[in-house]
Amino acid sequence: MTMDKNKMGAAQSSQLPEHGPLDANGREILLSLKNVDITFGKGEDAVKAVKNASFDIYKGETFSLVGESGSGKTTIGRAVIRVNPCAAGEIQYKGVRISGKTSKALDREVIRNIQMVFQDPAASLNERATVDYIVSEGLYNFHLYENEQDRVQKVEKIIEQVGLLPEHLTRYPHEFSGGQRQRIGLARAMVMDPELVIADEPISALDVSIRAQVLNLMKKFQEEKGITYLFIAHDLSIVRFISDRIGVIYKGDIVEVADAEELFDFPLHPYTRSLISAIPIPDPALEKNKVLFTYDPSVHDYSVDKPELVDIGHNHFVFGNQQEIEEYKAIRDKGEPLKSITILDPDDPLAEEKMAQQQKEYEKAHEEQFTMNTPLHDTGSIWYTIISFILPILGIIAGLVFKHFKHFNNFKACKKGAIAGIVVLLVIILFFAAMLGLALV
């Protein structure tokens, strides 16, 4: 009954409170995702990009969302700023529902309090506007200045804080390097004095030497202004050192959420272990002999016992069915950190054989990854095999087209039929050549 009242209060609020609700440990919950589904397309072409996502972000922390390309990280970030609508569930900010239809007053408050730093510093800036206007646009829209002198002071102050000079304000984005553009994007967000900043892979397009500078800038703003970050990334080696907590997402499912060091010491979900094992080792000799932990989705049997995200203690959430959760709990209760990276001894006579086996497992998992979520018409019909057998050249062309559009089952069917057709054709040609040779003799 209490939960229903809370939901009703969240749905009916038209303005943001000063503070968000507290969890059982007394931490203020700034942002909360509750059973969020995000779907693109309609009918048979519908694709569920995010499935039943639930997690909280506490005030003042850096929460990192990590996963491979296409896993749904950016989709969640764009849903928080209401670009992507939720098909189910809701998003709450300070306990107030901000997803779905909201009042104009609440909409302006949310825009004012939640800012985003985008991945591509070139595409996210208006090339026709000066840096002064780009940084000032939010101030203009919300009239966050007393007079023109106050606006200029605010813009010059923030541009200096991100490491640029006041004379840069009269220039245009194309006159800057990638790192400088990202600083401009950061200044544009920070000048609004937001409480939550969504950083969508803000350093992936930058040189390695520039990345640390941008991360240090973000950390400085967090310490000075108490800003909360939702940091979206695909590289665990970076987020380990800037995050308070980390969420791991795989094909739309949040598979693990834990404190940063807890996640690296006890990566319970096999996908998390595979991400950790993929972190490069600076020593080339060790990297060469490293054994990757390959994630194979077929190890899970969710046909009957459906999985869910469960708290196993230690503020650690893992996605799995009842049997898997019990196994994860048993592993965690032992308190022995898990080893995700194995280095082979180069003097071991079986080292090359083990590396070859590892490569086979990786290729198998890579192939299964393509075939798990196949397009609607990627059936691998026997007719593709038969037609390719009769007309092998046409089968090869069709197979290449299917492969280009990621219809891998159809590609395999065409490939199988074409190879068989070419073999039979060669046998027939050799037979008649042999017969002709005998006749001439």
Any key phrases for this structure?
Rossmann fold, 4-stranded antiparallel beta sheet, 16 helices, about 450 residues, disordered N terminus, alpha/beta, about 45% helix, single chain
Brief overview:
Helix content is 46%, strand content 17%.
Task: Describe this protein's structure.
By secondary structure, this protein is α/β, with parallel strands linked by helices. It has three domains: 2-265, Rossmann fold, CATH 3.40.50.300; 276-309 and 322-373, no CATH class; 375-441. It contains 16 helices and 14 strands. It has helices spanning 2-12, 73-80, 104-113, 131-142, 148-161, 178-190, 208-225, 236-242, 260-265, 270-277, 284-288, 322-334, 351-372, 382-390, 392-404, 408-440, and strands at residues 29-40, 47-58, 62-66, 88-93, 96-97, 114-117, 196-200, 228-233, 245-250, 253-259, 290-291, 308-311, 317-320, 342-343. An eight-stranded mixed beta sheet has the order 6-7-8-3-9-10-13-12, sandwiched between helices. It has a four-stranded antiparallel beta sheet with strand order 2-1-4-5, sandwiched between helices. The termini are far apart. Mean pLDDT is 86; it is low at 1-12 and 368-373.
